[in-house]
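User: Second chain of the day. Same drill as before.
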Amino acid sequence: LGIRDRGDLKGALLHAVMGGAHRSEIQAWTDEYVPKLIARGVFKEALAAIRKHRDAGDHLVLMTATVDLYVPELSRALGFDAYLCSQVSWKEDRLEGWLASPNMRDEEKASALRRTVAKFPGRRLVGYGNSAPDLPHLKLVDQAILVNASKSLRKAASGLPVEFKYWL
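Assistant: Same format as last time:
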């Protein structure tokens, strides 16, 4: 397959499963999927944290390695001001499925955060994460929070000023 990294694998899988889908099909799927995801797949504590930050006037940026098929809609529905995610390629109105941007994880996510922060100098940064690929960007924020961290993730984060939260 010529797969060299996770981004290549993500693109190959997306191309194989959804390649050729029309933009309107993707939008219909997104319109159905996002409300279900929020209702069943987002921790209540996460929704409360988003609300708390929104009420405090914080600038909210959703950062995820997920592709941009539904992230823009999810970001809007949750009340984020912006989003940073992996982007897919299109040919006219047909999904090619390959990644059109670097995979938004690890150092790529940290680089994207640096570029975003440069637009908002002096803002206090709070970052949330739930996996080892989130550690590079969590090192850049004023308050780092790891959610539902596994034992291996807690070990990887030892020595970092990280708060651990457990959401049910």
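Residues 105-168 form one domain.

User: Great, on to the next one.
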